[in-house]
Amino acid sequence: MICAPLAEPTLEAARRAMLRAAQRADLVEVRLDRLDALPRAEELAAFLKDRPCPVIVTNRPKEQGGGQDWPDDVRIKTLQAAIELGADYVDVELDLADRIEERHRTRLIISYHNYTTTPLDLPNIYSRIVRLGADVVKIVTTANSIVDNLRMFEVLRHAEVPCIGLCMGEAGRISRILCRKFGGLLTFAPMDPSHETAPGQVPLDELIGRYHYRSINSDTAVYGVIGDPIGHSISPHIHNAAFRAAGINAVYLPLWVPGDVCTFIEAYRGLPMAGYSITIPHKESAMGALDDIEPICRQIGAVNTVVNRQGRLHGSNTDWSAATEAIEAALDGEPLAGKRVALVGAGGTARALAFGLRARDASVCIYNRTAEKARALAEEVGCEWAGLDALAESESDVLAHTTSVGMHPNTEDSIVPDSALRPGMVVFDAVYNPVYTRLLRQAAEAGCTTATGLDMFVNQAVQQFKTWTEQDAPRELMEAVAREYLAAAQ
Predict the structure, then answer these.
(1) Which of 41, 114, 435, 457 has the greatest number of beta carbons closer than 10 A?
(2) Is 62 assigned a catalytic role?
(3) What is the pLDDT of residue 96?
(4) Which entry of 113, 195, 212, 239 is annotated as an active-site residue?
(5) Is residue 254 located within the same domain as residue 375?
(6) In this structure, are strands 363-368 and 340-344 parallel, antiparallel, or unpaired?
């Protein structure tokens, strides 16, 4: 189920919010501790009368996330009044549960909150709450690492009494989406991001629209993109849309891993994860956690795609082939073999593309502001190199830019001089936000054919989808979703 928390300052405002929430959520939680003043019994009765959906009544103390610091006996009195007025659920803290005297037909949620960590003894906490006679067990902790979610999932897996088990914070966001897979009773999703009542809650529209929460079940395959940072990633938008269009029971999550990626991958083998996209800064280090790696990945020194094949994690790299496909499409079917390519940059993307271009028998020269980096990469790849100041003298058929220059918000930046652009050449820019960078606008004005970073991004995502599902990806849909996201983000 999805519960929309109501954090309005008055019961009248909360009632209006409840009427809106009932159109999409299964139930609401009215937070009495977020009200400007405690309601009188008749006000609470009016709120609960003719309610359009079930209601949880909560009155949390400040130390457990509440908005007001009312005395415990006052809070218990309002919760007891809610029970007498027929509230569907009342939520009370573990240490005060024995002060609820009558339940009538109201279901009692007994909750434990930890705002600093996720304890190792979650099963013991669960058992304590069950012994107190809870109708619903609620355990909400703080995830200091994405690995902390695994302990919460284990509680949900083995719960015999209905259980709400969630982790707070950015590292715990995935628990709010995956709790349904492991049997969690509900998740909390505010109607507006500014109305969250605990850190890390996923807004209602995002939960339903992007992650298709209502379709998640125990058989749902779990994929995700590993990175740091990860909140800006377009990948969850396009892959979840693709899974839904293809009728595949899967969900794709942003996986924030700021630390050791190998530790994360090993820990999540038991979930198990069906596959990963891997982005900055983990493309190189993730190789140490995989069972099988394609030979070109060892040349490039990076993976960006992982698939779980019967328990073995197989790593590949779609960056190089995605970029070369984008360039080949701009060449209108002409092969890259024999083409002279000026490759601008010497970082990870340049490295992947350099090996890809050489695999296509292109003639490559690497240009970089730090000439020593260009030389080091050129010696590995087996191609020419030069400082960036020599780019204007290049006589290339293709110019491929792989640095972050020109990326949002610095959209008017470019390190490629106009003199390096000639009519008829193909110009590729790996930057995809914005789609049409200043470099590509320069190139179009000079009579060049252009290939965008979005072309590359969608190509690599299409290849990942095929690797994971062994089905053709809905490419047009994925590109449309990516363009829509980028346009809305401007």
Answers:
(1) 457
(2) no
(3) 94
(4) 113
(5) no
(6) parallel
